[in-house]
Design brief:
The protein has strands spanning 47-52, 64-70, 80-86, 102-108, 111-119, 123-132, 138-150, 158-168, 174-192, 197-216, 219-235, 243-252, 255-265, 279-285, 293-299, 303-309, 314-320, 324-330, 338-344, 347-353. By secondary structure, it is an all-beta fold. It folds into 2 domains: 38-269; 278-353, Sandwich (Immunoglobulin-like), CATH 2.60.40.3080. The two termini are 37 Å apart.
Length: 354
């Protein structure tokens, strides 16, 4: 997934599933039906940078269409996380995950935690995880893969799948993992964060139940038993999650430990000094349009706007010399009626000229 917090434990780690996840620029596409497709999941070479927020504000968000999720007053100034999307063959144990075409990787000290995906135009599936560089590394290809999503994922969509694996551990042990994942389309509307407002955002819930255990010559014992609900907001046509919140209830010998998280996408204007990407929140109004339209976007640098027709021919090029949140008038009244694409710094939005 989605796209998204991995923390090392003794023999396993908290998987940050980054979907599309929209989340999700080689062939970007925006859907009029507010659905998520494979185009929203990051590509090899992408970096998703997110910052933690005040978890006292955590709550299950409202469901349904026409929502306004307002987190603009939440303080997002905590730990920063960089999530890299890499070629599986370039990772330490990538050869053990046959069929993976993209891997999600985070680093905690000397430890690298990696999730291996199979991503195609019809689905997103986790085929295993790996922890390397620590004292107790675990390489766990899934015998029963974890299918997160079928594309397109639109209103009314849901997905339920079981997954499992066993793998050799340290000191002659065998590690086991068994779980179930449920993915739901929960709603659409406007998402407000302290640094950005995202129109036409889509809310996805990923509910996970997982048990990790270890068997040795001295018997078997459970190392992790958790239930987790993760809520992720994406925007059609934009890769990566705009925001996520989660709650994990992890059972252990000392009782249940509850962990809450809140994260939002970086932008430089937030004052944290790190940019998630050069451009986000691309929108056009009105759409369809018969006359000129207003394009809204966020850009860290001056950029060039280009409009292409359905055959890929460039029809218009326009300089945008500002930075930050911008609104630019697109003089499209002279274009013939039809479907067009406007592209800004690799992000693309489809619109209809009447």
């Amino acid at each position: 997934m989605l796209f998204w917090d991995i923390f090392a434990t003794t023999i396993t780690y908290h998987m940050h599933k980054k979907l599309l996840t929209a989340l999700l620029l080689a062939a970007p596409f925006i859907s009029f039906s507010q659905s998520l497709t494979a185009n929203e999941f990051p590509l090899v070479g992408d970096t998703l940078s997110m910052v933690n927020g005040d978890t006292s504000a955590y709550a299950v968000p409202s469901f349904g269409s026409g929502q306004t999720w307002d987190y603009s007053a939440v303080s997002f100034a905590g730990t920063k996380t960089n999530i890299l999307f890499v070629d599986p063959s370039k990772t330490t144990n990538g050869s053990k995950f046959s069929g993976s075409n993209i891997a999600e990787q985070t680093t905690a000290g000397a430890v690298k935690n990696t999730i291996y995906y199979t991503r195609n135009g019809s689905s997103l599936t986790i085929i295993g995880t790996d922890q390397s560089g620590g004292a107790f590394g675990v390489t766990m290809p899934y015998a029963d893969n974890e299918k997160l999503m079928d594309y397109p994922f639109a209103s009314g969509s849901s997905k339920t799948d079981t997954y499992g694996a066993s793998a050799a551990g340290s000191f002659g042990t065998t590690n086991y993992r068994n779980g179930q994942v449920n993915t739901y389309y929960r709603g659409s509307g406007t998402l407000k964060t302290p640094n950005m407002t995202y129109n036409n955002a889509i809310l996805i819930e990923i509910e996970s139940q997982q048990i990790d255990s270890t068997k040795s010559a001295f018997g078997s014992f459970v190392t992790q038993d958790f239930v987790e609900r993760r809520f992720l907001w994406g925007v059609s046509g934009t890769r990566g999650w705009m925001m996520e919140t989660s709650r994990r209830d992890n059972k252990g010998l000392g009782g249940t430990v509850v962990t809450k998280t809140m994260r939002t996408k970086f932008v430089a204007s937030a004052g944290v000094g790190i940019a998630m990407s050069n451009i986000t929140n691309l929108s056009l109004y009105p759409n369809p349009t018969g006359y000129d339209a207003v394009l809204t976007f966020y850009s860290l640098t001056p950029t060039q706007l280009k409009i292409y027709d359905a055959c890929g021919k460039e029809c218009l090029s326009l300089a945008a010399n500002g930075t930050g949140q911008q609104q630019v008038s697109l003089p499209v009244s002279g274009l013939k009626a039809g479907i067009y694409l406007v592209r800004v710094n690799g992000e693309t939005l489809k619109f209809v000229k009447q």
